[in-house]
Amino acid sequence: GAVVSQHPSWVICKSGTSVKIECRSLDFQATTMFWYRQFPKQSLMLMATSNEGSKATYEQGVEKDKFLINHASLTLSTLTVTSAHPEDSSFYICSAIAGEGNQPQHFGDGTRLSIL
Amino acid sequence: GEDVEQSLFLSVREGDSSVINCTYTDSSSTYLYWYKQEPGAGLQLLTYIFSNMDMKQDQRLTVLLNKKDKHLSLRIADTQTGDSAIYFCAERGTGRRALTFGSGTRLQVQP
Lengths: 116, 111
Description:
Number of helices of chain B: 0
Helix content of chain B: under 10%
Number of helices of chain A: 0
Structural class of chain B: mainly beta
Order of helices and strands of chain A: EEEEEEEEEEE
Oligomer: heterodimer
Strand content of chain B: over 45%
Distance between the termini of chain A: 37 Å
Number of strands of chain B: 11
Order of helices and strands of chain B: EEEEEEEEEEE
Largest interface: A-B, 21 and 19 residues
Helix content of chain A: under 10%
Radius of gyration of chain B: 13 Å
Distance between the termini of chain B: 41 Å
């Protein structure tokens, strides 16, 4: 149980393109999802907290107009990297929490984004 | 703010026990987690412990928590080559749903 699916797993695109990444909870309803960014050989950096039906809460230093987050249903959150540039190349990972209690976060397999 | 620290690298021989250590600063931490990340993959939840517990054992994994010293450890018994990965310690403070992660410990298991 508690499976989180992330799509696509790898994307390469040209500079200036917008890229959408999907995060789905397959067998549970996720009221809260999180988006992280991971640079090579580094830890995960929280970008934003996504709550179903409301605006995402962004961490300090993360541009909300650059990284658009939509959490339209209890099983889907999307992260759109708008007008991507090479410095946006990274590994993006989502996680989801089932319910409102003290459940652990379950992670997707990540999306490797490469901007040429 | 909250801070979580781990040693960067650990090398053990197959069959030995591995102990990965973690320290944290948030005294309000309610839950502490261990995640495993294999190359190019997401994070797999291994185990977690509530802050009022001292120890939790799950098959080959043993988690020890010293709340006074804010020290958490993960012991892997009979370490196998398939255990080679990066292990992240993470904590969750009171009233927060987001996690604070350590830098990760790369475990290398030599045959």
